[in-house]
Fold these 4 entries.
Entry 1:
Amino acid sequence: MKLVLLSGGSGKRLWPLSNDVRSKQFLKLIRNGESEPESMVQRVWRQLAANQFEDMAYISTSQSQVDLIYSQLGPDVPLILEPQKRDTFPAIALIASYLHSVKQLGPDEVVTVMPVDSFVEDHFFQKLKGLETVIQQSGADLALMGVKPTYPSTKYGYVIPVQADNESGSFLQVARFTEKPSVETASQLIAQGALWNCGVFAFRLGYMLQELQKKQLPTDYDQLVARYTALPKISFDYEVVEKAKHVVVVPYAGDWKDLGTWNTLTEEMSDSSVGRVHLEESTNTHVINELDLPIVAIGVSDLVVAASPDGILVAAKDKSHKVKDIASDWSQRPMFEERRWGWYHVLQFQKMNEKVEVLTKQLHLHAGKNLSYQYHHFRSEVWMIVEGEGEFVLNDRLMIVKPGDVVEIPVGAKHAIKAISDLDIIEVQMGSKLVEEDIVRLGMDWNDIVEMVSE
């Protein structure tokens, strides 16, 4: 069996800490057993290792999340890259084509996909391993995991089996699906033995390849990548699961939670405040502050306050889910990004005229990390070294930089830097098109870069 974690979603539900680059699964707001902060993706990857999934697990994600994944999990994590974000059906189609044409897996290989941000206990993964046997024994097109509901939620989809669970622990035939019902309907469904759809699907690789052929889509990975922008933006549930002829579900009675809103996420936080916060005489209130300015909250109840360079949220917890709809149409550039080498924070952006933009950033490189050897088509840069020391390359010339040094990088100039110690840089960009995509990379590994410039 191969297990693929889906990590391609955008980050609007936990705005302003999450954005199109830093989705909810990368926020380090929960703690592990040693009381150290960890993200949801770090938690689930740690759980996979503990349950012997290391040799069978992949992460499906977009190019914009690669640096974050490598930063939090290390550079050896197997990735299946989407050219762009297009919902779960295109992502799973690409997964199937990759495992078929790149990894050369046979049609009887069982593939399980699940969200990267499921908040579960370790025994969930033992149940997950059983899906391979369920697929083989049932002959079903698809096998799902269904969580036994603890309350009539209106946020989740429901899987309605042909009959209620007989407590045997075996799979059940699926009769139909209902998506996000009213409280009254959800209560009726639960009485009928309905389960929450937790987004876990297992199938034979051959079944998915047949589905692609029916839809006249290529099963070759490179060919599907070339056509990826033309694929419909639709969920796997709607495009495949609800149309399948034979679907079974495996009931799961353990703890499961989708930490997709501020309300549910704060229920799992051990700290009521993060960052520069003074919280006094308040109940059921959480304040998360990523800004240098202090936040003071006195005598408030049932609130979540979240502040980042992207904005500030103040919301009643039971209404906090509405931020997704408010922020969904905002297309501003992320003001903070975590990268494999460190992070950057946008300090100011100014459009001088139609042809000139100015962007000021603070860059932080962790000791031993480096930027790629690169150049830009549309911008020049000026770097002021604020703290730390580094090795700097400009047009094949290697030099040492330290606090107070200022370096100018003209348009088209090749440059790279490695932090000898933790390195802080103020970067001022000026040009006609200030976008992160304006980077031509010539090398990533520092030893390769040094060898390149010394030739």
Note: Residues 268-327 form one domain.
Entry 2:
Amino acid sequence: MTKDKSIFIKNIYYMLSYAFQTLNQENYDDVAVESFDEMYDLLAAILARGIGIQLKQGLYREYINRQEELPVMRGKINMPETIKNRLVRKQLLTCDYDELSENNLLNQIIKTAVMLLLRNAKVKAEYKDDLKKKMLFFSDVDKLEPTSIRWSSIRFQRNNQTYRMLISICQLIIEGMLITTDAGEYRLASFVDEQRMCRLYEKFILEYYSKHFPELSVSASQIPWSVDDGIRTMLPVMQSDIHLQKGNTVLIIDAKYYSHTTQTQYDKHTLHSNNMYQIFTYVKNRDYEFGDEDHKVSGMLLYAKTDEEIQPDNVYQMHGNQITVRTLDLNKPFSDIAKQLNTIAETHFDLPERSKV
């Protein structure tokens, strides 16, 4: 996918910075100026810095239930177990009590991700040493079976909001880069898979427009089905990646991250059919919402550019709507990436040219 690995990894950092605004804080400035040759090193550096910041604030603790045999009462006496003790002449009380502990799910996830990085041969020693020092503060925290983590069950509240970005980075490491060896051990794969990269790619573009184009309404909104009788039972949700709007002008962008931007059959290159059907459906249903009002609704498939010789660059006029297919070159300096994104919005919404990012 990449011609210049270091440039691409540098841009991954910028993409993460937009996806997680925490990375824009001055605490991460020196991470931004480092040169990374491996994705692992970038993730290790970000994780080490984030853990360091969290340690200064204090690790998140929550109450966990414990049962222990004690000479004096603590919490509540567990009568059945205490009676058993007496029957065997043990002069101990079995007590159930709650204790504030750092050994909770959030800290366990962090430790599990760090252990994976430490076992990876491609992570540089300097990042491993930094992470090992941080893990001294996690001595009472258990590791998890990586595949057992139920990410959807994680809930953030006021006391652990600072963990949100850290856990997202850990998820990228654990879920996106995890494979199993023949021996049943876990190690990191050579690169993040397409699904996770696509999610990051989408989030980056959405947050980029949200930050740099305040005059636009930027969202990842759902588009209702245009039905004649109002019945939408069992119809699938139409969830757009990026929905840009100014007045009655709309641009719906579907961000796609594939190893191949086109499909090939009998040496003939065509666009991914499902992608075209999807963006066309989004556009037509969104267009229907405006009714007789004067409006403009367009769609765009924005692929991450690959090294393939043939890259899509097409504009189609379909039933009164414009559908564009473009590529975004992530192997360019970030200023060039920003210029590509700016041009898309400036051209579509007739906006003045942005200053350099």
Note: The chain has three domains: 5-60+103-192, 63-101, 195-349.
Entry 3:
Amino acid sequence: MADSAICCTNLSRSPNANSVDEPCRSFHRTFHPFGFGSMSHPSLLDRRDFIKCSVGGSLAMGIGSVVPAALCQAADSVPPAGERILVVVQLTGGNDGLNTVIPYADEAYQRSRPKLRIGSADALRLDDSLALHPSLTGIAELIDDAMASIIQGVGYEHPNRSHFESMDIWHTCRRKTESRTEGWLGRYLETAAGRSGGDVPAMHLGRGQQPFALASRNIPVPTVQRLEEFQLRGDPTGSLSQLLRETSSIDDSADSLLGFVQSNTESALAASDRVRKAARGYRSDIAYPESELAEKLRIVAQLIDSGLTTRVYYVQLDGFDTHAQQRDTHAILLRQWSDAVNAFIRDLQQHDHHDRVCVMTFSEFGRRVAENASEGTDHGAAGPMFLCGGGLKPGLIGGHPSLTDLQDGDLKHHTDFRRVYAAVLRNWLETDPAPIVGEEFEPAEVFA
């Protein structure tokens, strides 16, 4: 098929892993109500072929070639109203935490960064020793409103300064000497199966490769670039709805599979309808900045308000590998992130969702304390994490790492990142963190 298919059930393979029985092939050729393949009248499709196809494969729904996963999941129960949501913002490349949360009063900072240091007159003061980068006015406003926390000195033992390996450690909570087939959020999705009310339990928004953090054995996660790509194509009230009405009249109470196919198909139609209405009818007085990250978060706000029961959203902002001429690039990136997150939280406030959404921002490592000869900074270790939203202990959490007691020129961490994950899992997503991050990582005290 020219277009990709979105499946509502897991694909059951025959002994020949690539084979699908003839009725299923016939179904995929003739019944594609959402915009791909040729369209035939539903009455031409034998109902038993429809059901048999669903046994061997799945009910296929075209949503666009960039969405490589399921629109709907089978669910045994609908989650309670107001289910909490986690939005992950990944700052890719290694954000310079030392010029993000600035120890402006520390003489060691002044000596280490003669060209890159941020002066106290420009920085946004948090207290008598620490300040935010001047680009972070949006985050500063959230801190003033008790809606943002900064966890200082976050990292892990024996830090790895490779982008790929360090990111894999953050994504999986495992070293390369251990088995790494699932991400930490993927493991969470496995434990929370059935709590997404029939909608996708997680979603990645962006153009790049899906983060390893979302990988799991059994829970597919879609990657979406634009809101329109999450909508089923064509008229969902047409031929498929007619077929659902016809099959519902079959007096076959023992045919549980038919009921399964009907319920999952109807869930997909309902989700698509909510997303379509969200795109058409969403209203907000919040002016999002013109950036790709802001657009992603605006879409997330619309999806949350549409009624989707998706629990996890994941977005990325790239460009933080600032080895040379860091000052201007870093300032632009921090402003993009700060302004986008601020607009997102304000939008959630306007629609009464802010108390059930937590935005977690991280980067794979910090940068060296000393600037390099190219007016940039090289790969480091510990850095700050940020949480924004409701239910937090606002402001600074933990002390700033020493700038004189270093590890190979890097800041030493005092809070393992898995302790922050554990807090998010236990105190926000209400699940046991031990099977996901490890029993030895007690949740950090970041929630009120």
Note: The CA atoms of residues 93 and 320 lie 4 Å apart.
Entry 4:
Amino acid sequence: MKKWWLHSIKIILLLSLVIPMLAACAISDTVKEKYPLESVNGSGSQTSYVYRAADQTVPEVAKQLVDKKKPEQQSAESTERMFLVYSDEVIQIQQAPDDPSDSLIEIDSKEYVRNNYSSSFLEGYLLASVLSDLFDNGRYGHGNYRGYSQKDVYKPKTTYHTPTDQDLKKAPPMTVNRTGSILKRSKNADSTAVGSGSSSSTGKTGKVITGGSSSSSSKKSSVFTKPKKSAPKIRMGSGRVSRRR
């Protein structure tokens, strides 16, 4: 009972450490692992990363991200544009202008949103309470940016660019082509090592070394003695069965 109680306490302590760590993981980590990075803008605390979700609609992408981590607020469902607001970033999912079958996932830090977006533009998507907190009660939100798909019309303060090697290190996409290698066992490997068995590549099989002299192969004996198969001796009339000593 005591061991069970201690084991339960260990599990509870482990969960208390793991669950907050999982909850603290940014939703951007999920996007990085699943979609290729298309463009980068900003630096430092003001960053914007754009990923492409091929052959997926805006509501489909939004649902995947919401199922992974629930946002503080989600805008109404739309096939053209949706917003997801998290504690440290704002995600804008929009239909790709060059291919309507694709969706663009723009992950903006809150500092980037404050310094580039227009609060009046976001009023049509987010609650007033969220906007007030996001733009510090009107202190920010005087830009004219509306998203990557319209970056040439509503320009951000800096220019978007194709990801560099340094950008890829900061936000590496996991959809790149990768190569691997297979290592074969060396021909000079010791085949008599303990635990070695048959090898499909060499055709050799392992063997068991028994006791006895190595020079007299015809008189090798096992280290184990085979038990005798004779029946136990029975004393008639006593009603007892005794084993041979």
Note: The first strand starts at residue 37 and ends at 43.
